[in-house]
């Protein structure tokens, strides 16, 4: 009997928005509703298994046979999905079905509006709101649930909604724990009322769930209902690799990630000896919607002795490998392990090191065997891999091998050049790897710092991602060849770009000119020099070898961090017509103005801004009038 004390609740605004999106926008793959509800049922059973092990005193000690059952009621226009999992309390029902507690809700919904319908389906499961996909096919959804820790005499909770902004909650009598979801289908969704159709969907999406999924078969003659198992009901990772088909691996990946795409590659390993465990690790083809929300959880599914322990166990992988999906099944960890104990466990640390090396090896092999496939990976996850240089000093060498760059000679913004190929293409006498960091690829490509490098056909890596400047603090050398920023002073460059005009006599001619410039600029500059690294530019500014770079100063400034004032080295191009003209000016005020213009335009080219642009403009206008 239903309790008369029915309570009406209003959905939170985010749920209303999501339900509207579900009902009116997602038409490309309606069958995902069954995948999501079965996935939730499986999770509920796994949670109860864990709770019975971890907190046995809260639960009855009777034999537990987990199962998911599906009934198709054609005459009633209903599909029923039941499980004997952990169930929910009234508070959990309100929290889980009436609100979205996950961080990033707003950004998720905004993202959903801007992508194609075909791609929206996969985000539903990834965001953890798969239950709401029920409303794609249902005009009413009823959820009967009772928590496993409740006494047999206690009531269950009935949640009902038509997905129109509100839901009701009331109590009902039941002795059984678990959850039963009744979907009252829309008249347009009759195709889901055929048993064969439901079986087909389950075989497609949920065949590898380790919990039996049964469907009822009604015999009209005998009037007896029998239950038929649909899925394999054996954990995929526990099977012999030789017996698992490629398609099985791909479908299992889709099941655990809710991704509609096949994975890029995977690795399935069984390890015996001091440490016994099974790992099944996947590299996705594309990033999840929340990959850049570092506060959101990620990680592997953890099983101990084939028993599910926790989702999103972050302890087994470093943060820069947060895109990796999969499971780890350990024989050595205790069944009642918690996240806190896991963090300090020596077994966890060993597994973390081993799994990290395995993933990096998978990626390195992919980069050697299938350059096209690896390039797809790099275009999506390259920024995250770059984080590894700072986070993982132990594996810096192999991470460096995975890096890809744009450069002068690559000729496009796409990062395709490996460090190995850069070294193979180095010119005779070159003993450094040259790079330039900038705000954008175009800005880097057109930088005056590159003029002599382009002329001498010396390649320069062009780094324009925000993380690049920070990354280069950790990437100091590769195969014992040091990196050198072309925007920093570098005495070793002289020999490489030797020019017939670059001689001592020529230098003496300009000594007086340089001294005059130093007196004018005084403490605004660290030094003034003659340079032969320029062709079309009269002057540039450089930072000294150990000083903070311009790009790093920009990063600090954007983050609101205090930065030391940069004193630049001004380098003058003696062959430039403007420099030759300035050199001949006798009027001290005019000469001074021209020198200040040279310096300020060099700073403007380097930083993209000036401390006082108005003075620069006034000075320039004065010279133009002259």
Automatic annotation (TrEMBL):
Gene3D superfamilies: 3.30.230.80, 3.40.50.11260, Heat shock protein 90, C-terminal domain, Histidine kinase-like ATPase, C-terminal domain. Coiled coil: none annotated. CDD domains: HATPase_Hsp90-like. GO terms for molecular function: ATP binding; ATP hydrolysis activity; ATP-dependent protein folding chaperone; unfolded protein binding. Residues 555-626 are annotated as: C. Keywords: ATP-binding, Chaperone, Cytoplasm, Nucleotide-binding, Stress response. SUPFAM superfamilies: ATPase domain of HSP90 chaperone/DNA topoisomerase II/histidine kinase (SSF55874), HSP90 C-terminal domain (SSF110942), Ribosomal protein S5 domain 2-like (SSF54211). Residues 1-339 are annotated as: A. InterPro entries: HATPase_C_sf (IPR036890), Heat_shock_protein_90_CS (IPR019805), HSP90_C (IPR037196), Hsp90_fam (IPR001404), Hsp90_N (IPR020575), Ribosomal_Su5_D2-typ_SF (IPR020568). It is found in: Cytoplasm. GO terms for cellular component: cytoplasm. ATP binds at residues 36, 40, 83, 88, 96, 102-104, 126-131, 179, 339. Belongs to the heat shock protein 90 family. Homodimer. Molecular chaperone. Has ATPase activity. NCBIfam families: PRK05218.1. This is Chaperone protein HtpG. It comes from Buchnera aphidicola. The lineage of its organism: Bacteria, Pseudomonadati, Pseudomonadota, Gammaproteobacteria, Enterobacterales. The gene is htpG.
